[in-house]
Amino acid sequence: IGALGRHADLTLTLDERDLSAPLRARLEALGFRHEALPRVRPAPAMALVRAPNVEREAGEIARRILEQAAAGRPFREMAIVVRAADVYAPLLRATLAVDDETGAICGHALWHDTFGTFSGRRGIWLEDLFVRDACRRAGHARALLEHLGSLVEGRVAWDVLTWNEGAIALYDRIGARPVREWIRYSWEPSD
After folding, report:
1. 3-state class (DSSP) for residue 158
2. Listed residue (84, 94, 92, 93) closest to 54, CA to CA
3. Is 140 helix (H, G, I), strand (E, B) or coil?
4. Distance (Å, rounded) from C-alpha 118 to C-alpha 133?
5. Which residues of 148-174 are buried (b: 16+ CB within 10 A; e: fewer)?
6. Residue 176, SS3?
7. Partners of 158 in the beta sheet?
8. Across the chain, what does the average pLDDT equal?
């Protein structure tokens, strides 16, 4: 700050909470003078912006900022609190199984988050589990399932076709069990 002050006019704006006695003494020794500004701030205009994705939320925030500026509110009086990006979870996620030796993609798990209303815990719905023929019986499907299981406190659930005996045998080996109390429904309403 001292070097800059020798070559340019400087104004430092500090909150009283940041201006300790030793810092004030150092700044005054460098030639700065203390000038308290009146604290005049209008009541904050608060608005909650919710949108289905980051892009739409950013657009809405920008629109509101421009609206406030057009109404005469200085930009220095505006503040934005943005929630974390992880709030916008993708609807469908993918986990890949990669061959350690060749680096080839051997399979995938397509899944999305769920919430168990009975258990009160986060779970996963496995939409699709696929392993290429050339990679089968090498542990990729099991590794994918175990990885998904490590991501949740609740359950991992999925459907399996009744004729897919190899998959059913794997699911039995890892300790998964069919849910016989439930009947799966599907509905495709017309437009």
Report:
1. strand
2. 84
3. helix
4. 38
5. beeeeebbbebeeeeeeeeeeebbeee
6. coil
7. 126
8. 80
Structure-block tokens of residue 169: 């045998």
Burial of 142 (0-12, 13-18, 19+ CB in 10 A): middle
What confidence tens digit (pLDDT) does each residue in 1-51 have? 677 777 777 777 776 666 778 888 888 888 888 877 766 655 555 666 666
Look-up: residue for tokens 């700044």? 27
Say how far apart CA 63 and CA 71 lie, in whole Å: 12
Question: How much is the CA Rg of the chain, to the nearest whole Å?
Answer: 29
- Tokens found for residue 52: 């289905």
DSSP assigned state of 63:
H
**Kind of pairing between the strands at 122-131 and 156-158:** parallel
Q: Which two tokens stand for residue 45?
A: 């205009």
Structure tokens at 158: 């999925």
pTM above 0.70, yes or no: no
Helix residue spans in the chain (DSSP H): 2-7, 21-29, 54-70, 140-150, 165-174
